[in-house]
Amino acid sequence: MDNVVFSKKIDIIKLRQVFSIEQTSIEKHWSQKMISSKNPLFEITRFPFYSGYASTAHYLYDSIVAVSHNPIRKILYIGAGALPLNSILIAQNHNLKIDNIEKDYESFKLSRLLLHKLNMDKQVKVIHKDILDFKKLKNYNAIICAILVGDNTKQRQRVINHIGKYMRFENLLLLKNIDGSRTLLYPPIDTTRFPKNLRVETMYKKQSELTNI
Questions:
Q1: pLDDT band for position 210 (50/70/90)?
Q2: What is the pTM for the complete model shown?
Q3: Cα-flanking dihedrals φ and ψ of residue 89, to 5°?
Q4: Mean pLDDT of the chain, nearest integer
Q5: Chain centroid offset of residue 173 CA
Q6: What is the CA radius of gyration of the chain?
Q7: Residue 66 in contact with residue 203, Cβ under 8 Å?
Q8: How far apart are CA 136 and CA 37, in angstroms?
Q9: For residue 82, is pLDDT > 70?
Q10: In this structure, are residues 126 and 100 in contact, taking their beta carbons and an 8 Å threshold?
């Protein structure tokens, strides 16, 4: 008996948008749970992806220290969302000040409430703004751009160009790039199109050990 094979064209842009909405919804749900909890620090450890974020936060800080020639005092995290867990963990573990940029108003409000509940709102701040409208980038030793910032490669390139224009010389911009089947969910970055004033340094990590940044 002959086998019949069916194939269907995938709308990758729509798939990425659906995935992004799902990730945002999960973060908002858990942020609300933590804000409502009598013990938000314990509630954070119950977050299903906590161990992955803990690994990522450790990896991000180690990567910054490995590449930077200057002491790290202040970090900007772009697209931290309603649950800025990477920022919280880095700030807690390394006594750093971190500003978060978030353009979605509901995510911004939840993030700010959560940080206040954790008594971390003086160490970790959140700013409601689109990164393309934010120019005070010279104040930060390192800038981390979350992987879901920009719905497509073109938008991510606009963000990179903007950061490259306003960040301070010798400071760091951290981006997570992907390849293979993972590009179905995340837009890849074309490093050949980086602004000329950005020098690219690549660090590799096993995908199984790293979650979203």
A1: very low
A2: 0.84
A3: -70, -40
A4: 85
A5: 12
A6: 18
A7: yes
A8: 35
A9: yes
A10: yes
